Amino acid sequence: MTCLVTGGAGYIGGHTVLALLDAGHQVIVLDDLSTGFRWSVPDPARLIVGDAGDLDLVCRVVRTNKITSILHFAAKTVVPDSFRDPLGYYLTNAVKTQTLLAAAVSENVRNLIFSSTAAVYESSESLVSEDQKADPESPYGRSKYMAECMIKDVGAAYNMRYGILRYFNVAGADPKGRNGQSTKTATHLIKVALETALGKRPCMEIFGNDYPTPDGFAVRDYIHVADLANAHVLALSRLQGGAESFTVNCGYSRGYSVREVVDVVKAVTEIDFEVRLAPRRAGDLASVVANSDRLRSFGWRPRYDELSTIVRHAYQWELELARASRLPDSDSVNTPDATDRPVGGSYNRTM
Ligand code: UDP
After folding, report:
1. Which of 11, 37, 283, 298 is the most buried (most CB within 10 A)?
2. Does residue 346 fall inside a structural domain?
3. Is 140 among the catalytic positions?
4. What integer is the mean pLDDT of 30-56?
5. Closest Cα to atom 3, ligand 1: which residue?
6. Whose CA is nearest to atom 20 of ligand 1?
7. Own/partner pairs for 190-195, CB < 8 Å, 24+ apart?
8. SS (H, E, C) 76-111
9. Which of 2, 349, 10 is CA-nearest to residue 179?
10. Cross-strand bridge partners of residue 2
11. Is 186 a pocket residue for ligand 1 (Cβ < 6 Å)?
12. How many C-beta atoms lie closer than 10 Å to residue 347's C-beta?
């Protein structure tokens, strides 16, 4: 059975494509390459460059390839960015999801996996479970929550089952070195810290030290992208096996403060770098850590749930990006459209 992966040329989508291929699925990726990379879609997956919000295109791709399952990653994903561009976030994350759902219903797609986020929750001192009331504090979180609501309503009205995966803080890179976070304007903590360690940035800022947390720094649950990718494969096989629709947290149930993360980055890289204190960032929550009982009850067994492992894999990828950027243009990730493959972005199941 072939599945359609929107946004499969991006960071989490790209790792999930690898996991799907590893599990023997056939994969078609639909990605407009606005932030994704062509090299991120290895053979035998097929890339169609286009918009996940293009009704006719999605209908055609689904019909031609007899697709019964869609994994929908295509989205804008940066919390601070969403305050500057709320309309862009509502268009991409909410409106285009509505269009994708319309296509899925009209073509009788049976299963939908949706990339949601812990940003739908409010801050919590205790572990957050899926039935905690959603109360997003950013346009990003609200746009994702709107999409969740649509998916649930569509699932109730039509013959389509869904798995909504709420990601906590995703980091790390493919342990086999085939993919990693490659966005050049990254804002995520581990990426920013690694770029600072490698001298790509003169220093980094920590946003806020006056949170009501044990050390005053914001606390997050960092999940390795490969464990998250495997959660998608599991979620898909649940739906394909006839399970009921579900919403599930994807995290490890373990929180680290920003300060602790920076310390681990310094320890893993063995590089000291300058860290400055800055004011809180809009929309940042004090603490969000997953209750992951539901995902574990599905049989999910994380393999890379040490923060130092997450950082080590992310560091290896950063080193590859740095190496690739020193190569002549054809192999460089610094080419204008940055679609060339940096390194091991090839598919190799046996590596
Ligand atoms: N953060 C920081 N400095 C940075 C990037 C992030 O202090 O350069 C903090 C941010 O304020 C938040 C945590 O790190 O408390 C995680 O932020 P990130 O952007 O990685 O993910 P988010 O939780 O916003 O999805």
Report:
1. 11
2. no
3. yes
4. 97
5. 206
6. 188
7. 190/222, 190/261, 190/265, 190/310, 190/311, 190/314, 191/314, 191/318, 193/261, 193/262, 193/265, 193/273, 194/265, 194/269, 194/311, 194/314, 194/315, 194/318, 195/318
8. CCCHHHHHHCHHHHHHHHHHHHHHHHHHHHHCCCCE
9. 10
10. 26
11. no
12. 18
Which of 210, 228, 258 has most ligand 1 atoms within 8 Å of CB, for mutation? 258
For 306-341, write each residue's pLDDT tens digit: 999 999 999 999 999 999 887 664 344 433 333 445
Instruction: Please report where in the chains the tokens 């073509």 appear, as a residue.
Output: 107
275, 281, 289: residue to mutate for ligand 1 pocket, most atoms within 8 A of CB: 281
- Whether 222 and 310 have beta carbons less than 8 Å apart is answered as yes
Structure tokens at 46: 């097929």
Residue 341 inside a domain? The answer is: no
What CATH number corresponds to the domain at position 77? 3.40.50.720
The minimum-distance atom of ligand 1 relative to the CA of 261 is 14
Tokens of 259: 């300060």
Cβ 195 under 6 angstroms from ligand 1 = no
- How deeply is 283 buried, as exposed, middle or buried, from its count of CB atoms within 10 A (0-12, 13-18, 19+)? middle
282 lines ligand 1 (CB under 6 A): no
Contacts of residue 34, defined as CB under 8 A and 6 or more positions apart, other chains included, come to none
Domain that holds residue 287: 2-327
Number of domains in the chain: 1
User: Is the whole-model pTM more than 0.85?
Assistant: yes
Catalytic residue among 11, 90, 140, 315: 140
> Is 83 a domain residue?
yes
In a domain, 6, yes or no: yes
pLDDT averaged over the chain? Answer: 93
Give residue 266's identity as a one-letter amino acid code. K
Residue type for position 304: Y
If you count them, how many residues does the chain have?
A: 351
